[in-house]
Amino acid sequence: MNQTQTQTLKSLQDQQRRLDQQKQEAAAVLAELDRNTQVLNDAKGEVQKKLGEAQRLLNQLSAVDRAAIQRDTDGAGGAASRSSSRIDPSTLPPASGYAAIAVKTALDQQGDPYKWGATGPDTFDCSGLMVYAYAKAGVSLPRTSQDQGNVGTNVGTDWRNALPGDLVVYHSDRHHVGMYIGNGLVVHAPRAGDVVKTMKADAIQISTIRRV
Questions:
Q1: How many helices (H) and strands (E) does the chain have?
Q2: Model's pTM, two decimal places?
Q3: Phi/psi at 202 (5° precision)
């Protein structure tokens, strides 16, 4: 093999090595893309699962409950409308004893954001608001709305029999609760994306009313 042939062979070998290296680098890039695609697919699957669960829960609501939620949503507006809809405690019938402290405390939280699992002082879920308000009055309540539906005295399901401070528990599975404040209203923490505010006591199907 003469010198020219040797140089040609060496050049070909160098090109082959570069091609092999480029193939390895391309394979690594493809593998990384595959991993990223899998992560995206997993995330998409999780989102779809949560959306499906939310739709399933929505489908379980009665037409009356869905209409009530829609009315509540339509009336929420922005921060300005929420602020203007705050209830002035001086316009409400007086509560007595520790219920008066609980009512005042709950009303003081109007405008605070909803957060699932929160019990204050700046964010609340529905039962967490009740726990926080009554704790200020020195009364310990169970943590969940289901358990709160068994405390104290059963007042029935007619809000006209309620007194300020009574717990109004909603839905057949008791997954929501508000506090009666008088004048046919409750104060409650509705859901994610909303704030503590008032609504008509019978806007949602009442499961039970409890006097603490």
A1: 6, 6
A2: 0.62
A3: -105, 20
For the question of residue 175 being annotated catalytic, the response is no
Contact (Cβ atoms closer than 8 angstroms) between residue 173 and residue 146? yes
Superfamily of domain 91-211: endopeptidase domain like (from Nostoc punctiforme) (3.90.1720.10)
Cα(186)–Cα(179) distance, rounded to whole angstroms?
Answer: 5
- Mean pLDDT in order along the chain per 10 residues (212 residues): 72 79 81 80 76 74 62 48 64 93 96 95 97 97 96 97 97 96 96 95 97 96
**Contact by Cβ (8 Å): 180, 201:** yes
176 is catalytic: yes
Using one digit for the tens of pLDDT, what is the confidence trace for 18-53? 887 888 888 888 888 888 788 777 777 777 777 777
* Angstrom distance (rounded) from CA 34 to CA 32: 5
Residue 160 contacts residue 185 (beta carbons within 8 Å): no
Known catalytic residue: 126? yes
Catalytic residue among 104, 174, 188, 210: 188
Single out the catalytic residue among 68, 126, 151, 155: 126
From 104, 174, 176, 210, active-site residue = 176
Q: For the chain, how big is the Rg over CA atoms in Å?
A: 30
